[in-house]
Amino acid sequence: MTSFDIVKTIRITEKGTLQSEKYNQYTIVADRRASAPAIKRAVEELFKVKVLRVNTQNVPGKARRQSTKAAGRTSDWKKAIITLKEGEKIDLQ
Hints:
Elements lengths: L2 H4 E4 L3 H9 L2 E6 L5 H12 L3 E9 L3 E3 L5 E3 L3 E8 L9
């Protein structure tokens, strides 16, 4: 897998913004098959930053209603919270 396959997107939420300001942490949606060391290498390569720690969590999908008759389900996904070295930053613009 390439770095672009591993890192799908950065999640920008209210909680994630507070984490980035206070703890220098960012939340990333990663490929479900990717390991923490692979995510670390991919982030360092794509964003040119130094990663100190990667915490991962598999998030199960939720049951959702498509209409009154049909029930559906959202996809499972992997959340990775990365902590960057002091002074490093990912530009989200």
